[in-house]
Amino acid sequence: GNYFDEFQMEGVAAEHNEIYLEVVPENLSRALKTAQNAKAFKIKLTNKHCPCLRVAVELPSLSTSSRIVTHDIPVGVIPRRLWNDFREPSVPDFDVSIYLPVLKTMKSVVERMKNLSNSIVIEANLSGEMNLKIETDLVCVTTHFKDLGNPPWASADGCQSSSQGRDPESMAEARIDIKKLQQLLAGQQVNPTKALCNIVNKRIVHFVLLHEDVLLQYFIPALA
Q1: How many helices (H) and strands (E) are present in the chain, helices listed first?
Q2: Tens-digit pLDDT profile for residues 198-209
Q3: Tens-digit pLDDT profile for residues 114-145
Q4: Model pTM?
Q5: Are 205 and 137 in contact (CB under 8 A)?
Q6: Cα dist. 82→21, 22, 79 in Å?
Q7: Domain extents for the chain?
Q8: Fold entry, domain 96-154+170-221
């Protein structure tokens, strides 16, 4: 409904009006590139020789007849018994929520730190301060960020998160796998319009990246 003028969806039942599909991103991306200057664009799930997403693109034409380019993208249909494996995880009450610094800067710092340690400590408080820290037997390195700002978050049920009433200077922290953080940062080809980090002390780090109409969430569990 957010993307199409007409939308028709028929799931297996009224209470399960969904279809879960697995698709190779590169295949879908190549098909959508032909639709950049399209007059009209249609996606349809078909099942002739195998399940496919049929992408039909109507292109501008100098004549009265239309030019239509069709792509059939093979997809895997995920059975309903596996749907719970793909549902969005619930976000636990966090101790600190903070806006992230420029991701390119953060990526550069993490890339240097990964040569020194397999883990990194992310700590932040409610005064807009965040530290990236590695500690080994030989070296301790910390990068400080200030004046990042803290978003006014509340949990989905309207209750205040556990950050309410917290000492603004008190740091919440989590030690995570530095390679997982590096992969997250390396995958961001376009700077998001907003990026923030929620920390559940010593349990999990939850990253939220907003790219215009797309919201990406990443969960990295803390190391023991």
Answers
A1: 3, 13
A2: 999 999 999 998
A3: 889 999 999 999 999 999 999 888 889 999 99
A4: 0.68
A5: no
A6: 11, 12, 6
A7: 21-85, 96-154+170-221
A8: Proliferating Cell Nuclear Antigen (3.70.10)
